[in-house]
Amino acid sequence: GKRGFEPIEGCIQSNLATMSELDTPRFRAWLERAWSEVSQSRAQLNAENLYPVADSDTGSNLEATLEAAVTAMRAEDSEELGDVADAAARGALGGAQGNSGVILSQIFRGFADGIREGLPQAFARAHEAAQKAVTNPKEGTILSAARAARDAVALRVGEIGRDGAVALDAWRAARASTLDSANNPPHQDAMGTIDAGAHGVELIYGALASMLDPDLVISQIPSSANVKERAHASNVNHASDGEFEVMFSMRDLNNDQISKLQSELTKLGESLLVVGDSQLCKVHIHTDFPGEIIEVSTQYGKASEIKITHLASSLGVDEKS
Q1: In 3D, which of 122, 72, 112 has the Cα closest to residue 92?
Q2: How far is CA 23 from the centre of its chain?
Q3: Which residues neighbour 33 within 8 Å (Cβ) at sequence distance 6 or greater?
Q4: 283 phi and psi, to 5 degrees?
Q5: Residue 312 three-state SS
Q6: What's this model's pTM, rounded to 2 decimal places?
Q7: Quick one: which of 167, 163, 130, 162 has its CA closest to 146?
């Protein structure tokens, strides 16, 4: 999309006559553009990553998750919008990286579930799925941006021929929420810096709005105004929620097993996400007990794609099993 530095709203006045509807080709074009936007902003998003752990990888995780979504979408031959959206959601879950990537995969899952009923419902279900995934949600995060987008278009349910306007309203609300996260952060040590996850959603929803409205010019949120010195990020002093990040996948679990696994893991760490279905369940947790996490999972099946990252150094050094 075209870039420029416009007034605070971040865009010029849109012309309803130029706006398009979200069909299958435009959905495909949206995800391609979103991946490109996040890739271009990866370094800035990594620099903004102060919560829940200042490990400078939110941009990289969102980029990897989007790449997986796009790869799966490209492999889907169907021309049905719902089928293509489902493929993207499955790809995002399978390739999700980090806390932000797993939550993003659920945004795509909800979006795919809702798009069959219309774009406002897609934004609503996107927030619903993401919110459900997080056991201890905080304000000023990726969830706040997704909720703001949902709320902005809630009254548009049932409208016909207004996808461009819906996407524009959703993006503007996500952007306002992202900017507000600097003043109302999830933790006081992030005060003054916009939340990286929220910013990622703003970029993704902005890609949709600008794809549906070719006249829309979106200004990039400038890093100089919103990103603190990395020295600050490396010295964030709030209590750690675990020395290790543990991620793994499980297959062939029923809903009862997934629920029980989530309940057991709640006792062993923080930032817990257990998402997916019987085909593929993805687990993310910050913990001091990575061995116990894996041991608990064996009660329900075989864990695969195990990735254990040492967080204490905030260097993202992986110890893969």
Answers
A1: 72
A2: 22
A3: 1, 207, 210, 211
A4: -120, 135
A5: coil
A6: 0.85
A7: 130
Evaluated on CA atoms 23, 24, 26, 27, the torsion sign reads positive
List beta partners, residue 125. Answer: none
Output the CA torsion 222→224→228→233 (10° steps): 70
- Give the pairing of strands 270-276 and 281-287: antiparallel
Cα separation, 272 vs 286, whole angstroms: 7
How far is the C-alpha of 22 from the C-alpha of 184, rounded, in Å?
A: 33
Q: How far apart are CA 165 and CA 149, in angstroms?
A: 12
Q: Which of 205, 197, 213 is nearest to 144 (CA)?
A: 197
Encode burial over 267-276: b for 16+ CB neighbours within 10 A, e otherwise.
Answer: ebbbbbbbbb
Element (H, E) at 146: helix 142-153
Count of CB atoms situated within 10 Å of the CB of 134: 19
- Could you tell me the two tokens for 84? 């293509």
Distance CA 269, CA 290 (A): 9
CA-CA distance, 165 to 173, in Å (whole number)?
12
Coil vs helix vs strand at 309:
strand
User: If 0-12 CB within 10 Å is exposed, 13-18 middle and 19+ buried, where does residue 232 land?
Assistant: middle
Rounded Cα distance between 59 and 126, Å, is 20
**Residue 117 DSSP SS3:** coil
DSSP code at position 267: T
Each residue's pLDDT tens digit, 182-223: 999 888 888 889 999 999 999 999 999 999 999 998 988 877
pLDDT tens, position by position, 248-291 = 999 999 989 999 999 999 999 988 999 998 899 999 999 999 99
As beta bridge partners, residue 249 has 282, 304
Name the maximum alpha-carbon separation found in the chain: 58
